[in-house]
Amino acid sequence: MKANLRCPSCGGSVEERGGALACPGCATAYGHAPNGAPVMLTPELREAFRLDPTDNISAMSYDREAMDLIADVTAKGGMVLDCGRG
Description:
The chain is α+β, with helices and mostly antiparallel strands. The protein has one domain (2-75). It has two helices and three strands. A three-stranded antiparallel beta sheet has the order 1-2-3, with no helix packed on it. Strand 1 and strand 2 (20-22) form a beta hairpin. The chain starts with 14 loop residues before the first strand and ends in an 11-residue tail after the last helix. The mean pLDDT is 81.
């Protein structure tokens, strides 16, 4: 999955550095959520959308149909991008 990630600041590739993801192109560093998922939010995005740090991935839980779909896709080596529903 990390090979598919791009820096939201400049669009460059990101690489693992000291337990965080970093963009060698613009020197922006990104951390990880408690579950290990990369957090690709710049300070500007956090401010623009008034995002507060949280341990929650989502305020809503997935229903059984969504969980089955996620399990099926990931079992076949695919990825699922949750873009929210707000």
